[in-house]
Amino acid sequence: MMFFLIIQVFANHIIRSSSLGKIKWMSLAGGIAVSYIFVYILPSLHHEQDDFGDTALELAMESELYFFGLIGIVVFYTLSKLAERHRYRSGATIEDSFFFIQTSLFFIYNMLISYIMFAADQTTEQVIFYGVAVGLHFMAVAHDMYRENNKKYRKYGRFMLAGGILCGWLIAEFTPHSSIALSIVFAFISGAIMFNVIKHELPSEGSAHLPTFIISAFTYSTVTLLLKLFFDW
Length: 233
Hints:
Blueprint: H1 2-17, H2 22-55, H3 64-90, H4 96-119, H5 124-148, H6 150-174, H7 179-201, H8 210-231
Helix pairs in contact: 1-5, 1-6, 2-5, 2-7, 2-8, 3-4, 3-7, 4-5, 4-6, 4-7, 5-6, 5-7
């Protein structure tokens, strides 16, 4: 959990002070994030759907968790567009209210990701390995918000997002877990992650280092598949 908090609060300092460079950092994060979707999120969602049929009895169909994933995409896309519309109505600059709406949205986003990471039945090794992908995702989102309004992000935005991570961990640690609720939250946040990875982490032509993106995507995928093969993850 401390790793996520440090990443969230100091993400832009880490990027600026690193010899890797901002473009390579973003390409690295984007490659790993895309790999994370295809080698972890989608297979896990399929597994959760199979298990959901055993826990929800006659209420279960064959695709309801995928529907919750769709809801996650639609909700975050809709809220993102509404926030952008509010921004443009307020003028060319980002107003306080827009940034607060945006930060509140990602507070909830971070909270749900943190909750799933720590409430799910995973080994310490799995949490650490998958936590790298999640941490880089947090870093990419943080950098995107920093670019839009660095003063407000440094002043309170990064601490609000870190607070979301802390709240998710507290909920995971001190509240009872329902397997059905966990499956639904996982499906919902999976859809949201897919949307935000595409929106924030697929680097544009002018800000991409293609070799870094390709190498990171296939390296993370290969390592993940080998770990699943040898350790039955």
